[in-house]
Inverse folding.
């Protein structure tokens, strides 16, 4: 009775659309616990299930399906499943009950008691009794899911149904319009084709799916269904191409679709054909090849859409690859020719036209002909041979009979495409060997052709050909390849009217570096090095050659060390000008960086260090020991190159290399003797090595405390700027990398103890700045003591107050090696946020509490330095408090700081324009206008550019009513800025002027 | 003539060879003056759109670097442009676009002459006269429809 009560309540709930979860849970729990049997439930539902009223019947099934969906597998006995299946199969004829039955069956099917026989029963009833398309989407989806689940869980039962199932399913999806349902249906079809022999019903099935081709639908925004036009297209494609039985019905209409005007349809049809190539019988394609080739040729020749061209060529290649015989062509070109004339082969459709074009007086569309020939030739080794046999003799003959350069170029272009196919199939056509001498003579450089811009395309085509000959497997002998590489090398190096020839030659050498690294090293590298070593070589040529060498060296691992060695040898032999030396070392560093980013293993790093960095450091050491003046930039460049490798070395290798460096430089660093002046210049190299050590690397000193202490003392008394900076860098780096906070704190005390007696001299200020940098980045609160001390200094009437303010750049800015992420510096998350939230309020309050203009200016310098190194996300948080100060900074400062302030304001305008809505016309525009005048010495080029950038952004970010009052003034100012003495400023002024001129036009 | 029909249906489109000046070291040195030269003026007009096609004057070789003459000292600029075909009725409009672009971009001290390259157009002298007549240019720019067309052509140049 209780069941009846529950069921009645449930049914009433359904009628009122109430939440039945509780009732449902009760029913499910009771049945699972065995308090109520499933039979009792059905009995209780009896009056509903047998009712003459459709809605009551539907509700009855609804209750049953809800309960079944939640019941665990073991709660439904096998007998009950059989009865339920019988019941549901019979009830599927009752349209009102179908939606709930499908849900219930889907739930039942997941239970192990649901056998293959049941699957067949239900499927038969579904396909026979239910007119699926008359139901709404959710029911149709359930029907497709049911079929899918049936195929998945009981394939043998479905297979047994055979033709009935195929035909039934074809009828089920006939007329389907919802893309979501189509997606499911299309996904089922390949599964059916794999499971059942669809031969008898292939036509019916094909018709119901092919009518959707080409399929498009617009994905509406906010549509939760996770299907996209591409997915739907792919699903339909896999359905159309899932069975060889579809071939004779699909190929013709698909080829017809390739003539469509819309390029998306063309691409879809071509890609579907390509997908079908491996499924449909090749004979079917053979019959249609003439039409298809004609259509593809037209598409390629028109070249209206790149996507169409690449799809057309891809399809051509795929289809020819399945049509091609698998055996390679016999080694007799003549017999092949005879075959071709006897019976028409599919290749004829392409070759006839190509041969016709090649023998015409004027070769039209050489690039397109070449592309088609390449697509066909690369489809198989057989096709490659046939195409080469047909085309090569004609080209060779025409080349020998013409001197017209345009024609020669066009023929060479086509030949290049054919040769590239040989490279792609990794097997050269046999006929190439026979024509080797002719081929070599075709590509031999013609000295009669001048290196004019007009002929650069000809040169480039020839260089490409030479590369292809070199890439052909087993074609050129080593000597011939060396000559080819030399030709390319010279083309890359020699001065040419058109730099594209140099660029192309370099590009080709990079390609060859991967396949022939040894020959590049032995043939091309010396050419480059000789060119770099020539007298009076121009800087831009050096830059070009170094770039080329850099790209070649990173292209293949085999060329890396030889090129770098060559470059280092050039530098260390001392024949190069120092400016070129610097450019060369810079290239070495960039190559090392690229090599490290690509692949960094311990052995390679050690080898590179020994081969590259050691000779460089020895070279500068040699220069400095003989008291020569070594340019600082050169030393820094060597140090940067060292950092690149040294930071990547293992701890043990670093420790080993530090020993000699310490013995060479430590005494120089700590000495106050100026007689070691020469070596003093090289201290940045020492600093770079020590700063790029790993945290666990042990420095070769007896006591770290004593070492740091002596460095600090030496720095505070030294007059040498280099020595002082190096000491600070090393101290900061050591402090930053100490993991134990107590140890770090005690070491910090030791360092700062030395400043006790000394007043606030420049060295002390710098020391505090470096200590702050080291500690703030690892979130050590002691760092803020130094920051506060520095802030205090900026407020003093001391000669170093300005330097204390300026030095905030050291705390937050970039550095080449000291306390940076690449040199294993410790950077904790939120360190910058913490700095910003701690320091900026202090600056703001300091600014408000002082009336001294000098102090205000210093605080603004600190603020600008703090702001410009902050990430955007940090900066935008609470920016409104800082804006007034930034505006004051624009008024009071000049140069870099002024530019930085303007750029910060610009950033705010870009990100959150509403923050500055009130200030924009009252303060920002007048200040920006004032900053564009070149007569004011504070307005450097950078400042003027920044101001114009801000002005240019304002019309984009603010509506017309907000800024229109300023338009006249701004235009007047910008008209003046258009006559600035610097070109880059004028360009920005023109941009801004036109934006303001069009203000409100939109 | 049908308004949608184009005067030159299939103009020759040339590949644009990038010859941008690039940033040089002296660019940020305030002590060095950068006089206005033909390259800079070319940079201002090369991206103007053709009134008929979605192509720039540079792509159509209507504007050429070599046909711009600038004398910064005496404040003179002479631009010669080449219509794509000799009977191009858009020549005046193209000239007007160039003039407006330079009016809005060059310093006001410059006197700008715009001419059709000799021998490249049937009504060369009439068009030249129109383009260099201040009154007529001013009157043309009063015409809002014409100004809209000019602004559309210049939209890509900014």
């Amino acid at each position: 009775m209780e069941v009846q009560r529950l069921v009645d309540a449930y049914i009433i709930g359904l009628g009122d659309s109430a939440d039945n979860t509780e009732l449902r849970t009760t029913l499910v729990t009771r049945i699972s616990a065995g308090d109520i049997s499933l039979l009792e439930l059905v009995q209780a539902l009896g009056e509903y299930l047998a009712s003459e009223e459709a809605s009551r019947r539907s509700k009855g099934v609804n209750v049953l399906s809800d309960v079944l969906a939640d019941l665990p597998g073991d709660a439904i006995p096998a007998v009950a499943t059989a009865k339920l299946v019988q019941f549901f199969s019979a009830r599927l004829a009752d349209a009102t009950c179908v939606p709930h039955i499908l849900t219930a069956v889907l739930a039942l099917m997941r239970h192990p008691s649901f056998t293959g026989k049941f699957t067949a029963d239900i499927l038969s009833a579904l396909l026979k009794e239910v007119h699926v398309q008359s139901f709404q989407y959710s029911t149709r989806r359930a029907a497709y899911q049911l079929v899918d689940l049936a195929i998945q869980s009981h394939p043998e039962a479905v297979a047994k149904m055979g033709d009935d199932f195929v035909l039934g399913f074809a009828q089920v999806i006939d007329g389907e319009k919802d893309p979501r349902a189509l997606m499911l249906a299309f996904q089922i079809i390949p599964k059916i084709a794999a499971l059942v022999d669809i031969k008898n019903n292939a036509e019916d099935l094909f018709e119901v799916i092919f009518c959707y081709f080409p399929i498009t639908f617009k994905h509406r925004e906010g549509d939760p269904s996770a299907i996209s036009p591409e997915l739907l297209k792919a699903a339909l494609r896999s359905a159309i191409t899932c069975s060889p039985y579809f071939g004779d019905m699909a190929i013709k209409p698909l080829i017809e679709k390739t003539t469509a005007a819309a390029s998306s349809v063309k691409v879809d049809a071509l890609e579907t054909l390509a997908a079908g190539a491996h499924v449909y019988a090749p004979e079917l394609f053979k019959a249609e090849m003439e039409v298809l080739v004609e259509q593809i040729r037209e598409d390629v020749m028109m070249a209206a859409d790149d996507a169409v061209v690449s799809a057309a060529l891809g399809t051509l290649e795929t289809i020819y690859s399945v049509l091609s015989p698998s055996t390679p062509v016999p080694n007799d070109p003549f017999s092949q020719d005879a075959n071709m004339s006897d019976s028409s082969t599919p290749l004829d459709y392409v070759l006839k036209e190509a041969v016709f074009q090649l023998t015409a007086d004027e070769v039209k569309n050489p690039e397109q002909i070449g592309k088609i020939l390449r697509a066909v030739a690369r489809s198989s080794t057989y096709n490659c041979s046939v195409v080469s046999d047909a085309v090569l003799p004609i080209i060779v003959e025409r080349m020998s009979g013409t001197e017209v350069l345009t024609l020669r170029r066009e023929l060479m272009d086509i030949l290049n495409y054919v040769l590239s196919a040989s490279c792609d199939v990794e097997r050269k056509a046999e006929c190439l060997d026979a024509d080797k001498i002719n081929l070599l003579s075709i590509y031999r450089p013609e000295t009669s052709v001048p290196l004019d811009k007009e002929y650069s395309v000809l040169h480039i085509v020839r260089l490409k050909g030479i590369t292809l000959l070199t890439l052909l497997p087993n074609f050129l002998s080593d000597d011939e390849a060396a000559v080819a590489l030399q030709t390319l090398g010279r083309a890359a190096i020699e001065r040419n009217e058109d730099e594209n020839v140099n660029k192309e030659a370099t590009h080709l050498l990079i390609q060859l570096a991967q396949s022939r690294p040894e020959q590049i090293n032995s043939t091309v590298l010396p050419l480059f090095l000789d060119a770099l070593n020539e007298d009076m070589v121009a800087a831009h040529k050096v830059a070009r050659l170094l770039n080329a060498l850099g790209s070649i060296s990173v292209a293949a691992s085999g060329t890396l060390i030889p090129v770098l060695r060559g470059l280092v040898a050039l530098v260390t032999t001392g024949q190069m000008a120092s400016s070129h030396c610097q450019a060369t070392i810079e290239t070495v560093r960039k190559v090392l960086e690229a090599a490290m980013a690509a692949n960094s293993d311990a052995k390679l790093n050690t080898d590179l260090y020994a081969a590259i960095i050691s000779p460089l450091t020895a070279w500068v050491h040699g220069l400095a020991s003989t008291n020569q003046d070594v340019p600082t930039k050169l030393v820094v460049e060597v140090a940067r190159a060292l950092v690149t490798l040294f930071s990547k070395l293992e701890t043990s290798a670093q420790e080993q290399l530090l020993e000699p460096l310490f013995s060479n430089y430590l005494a120089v660093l700590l000495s106050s003797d100026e007689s070691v002046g020469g070596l003093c210049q090289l201290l940045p190299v020492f600093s770079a090595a020590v700063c790029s050590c790993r945290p666990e690397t042990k420095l070769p000193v007896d006591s770290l405390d004593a070492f740091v202490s002596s460095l600090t003392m030496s720095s505070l008394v030294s007059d040498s700027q280099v020595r002082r900076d190096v000491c600070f860098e090393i101290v900061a780096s050591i402090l930053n990398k100490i993991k134990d906070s107590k140890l770090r704190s005690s070491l910090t005390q030791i360092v700062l103890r030395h400043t006790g007696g000394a007043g606030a001299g420049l060295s002390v200020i710098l020391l505090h700045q470096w200590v702050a940098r080291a500690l703030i980045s690892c979130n050590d609160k002691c760092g803020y003591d130094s920051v506060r001390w520095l802030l205090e200094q900026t407020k003093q009437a001391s000669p170093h107050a300005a330097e204390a303010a300026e030095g905030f750049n050291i705390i937050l800015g970039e550095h080449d090696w000291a306390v940076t992420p690449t040199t294993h510096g410790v950077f904790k998350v939120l360190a910058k946020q913490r700095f910003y939230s701690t320091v900026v309020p202090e600056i703001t309050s300091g600014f408000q509490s002082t009336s001294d203009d000098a102090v205000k200016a210093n605080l603004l310098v600190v603020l600008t330095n703090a702001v410009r190194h902050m990430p955007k996300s940090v900066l935008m948080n609470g920016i409104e408090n800082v804006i007034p100060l930034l505006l004051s900074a624009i008024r009071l400062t000049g140069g870099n700081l002024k530019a930085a302030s303007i750029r910060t304001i610009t950033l705010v305008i870009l990100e959150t324009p509403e923050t500055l809505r009130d200030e924009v016309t009252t303060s920002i525009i007048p200040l920006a206008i004032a900053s564009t005048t070149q007569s004011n010495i504070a307005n450097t080029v950078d400042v003027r550019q920044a101001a114009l950038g801000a002005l240019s952004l304002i019309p984009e970010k603010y509506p017309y009513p907000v800024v229109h009052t300023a338009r006249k003034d701004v235009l007047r100012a910008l008209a003046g800025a258009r006559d600035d003495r610097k070109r880059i400023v004028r360009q920005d002024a023109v941009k801004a002027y036109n934006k303001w001129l069009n203000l409100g036009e939109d | 003539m049908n308004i949608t029909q184009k005067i030159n249906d299939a103009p020759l489109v040339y590949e644009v060879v990038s010859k941008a000046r690039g940033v040089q070291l002296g660019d940020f040195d305030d002590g060095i003056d950068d006089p206005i030269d033909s390259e800079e003026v070319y940079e201002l007009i090369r991206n103007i759109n053709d009134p008929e096609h979605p192509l720039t004057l540079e792509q159509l070789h209507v504007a050429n670097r070599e046909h711009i003459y600038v004398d910064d000292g005496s404040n003179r600029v002479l631009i010669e442009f080449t219509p794509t075909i000799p009977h191009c009725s858009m020549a005046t409009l193209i000239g007007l676009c160039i003039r407006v672009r330079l009016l809005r971009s060059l310093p006001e001290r410059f006197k700008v002459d715009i001419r059709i390259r000799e021998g490249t157009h049937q009504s060369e002298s009439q068009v030249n006269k129109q383009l260099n007549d201040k009154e007529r240019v001013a009157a043309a720019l009063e015409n809002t429809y014409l100004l809209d067309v000019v602004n559309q052509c210049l939209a890509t140049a900014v």
Chain A touches chain B at residues 934, 940-942, 975, 978-979, 981-984, 986-987, 990-991, 993-995, 997-998, 1001 (CB under 8 Å).
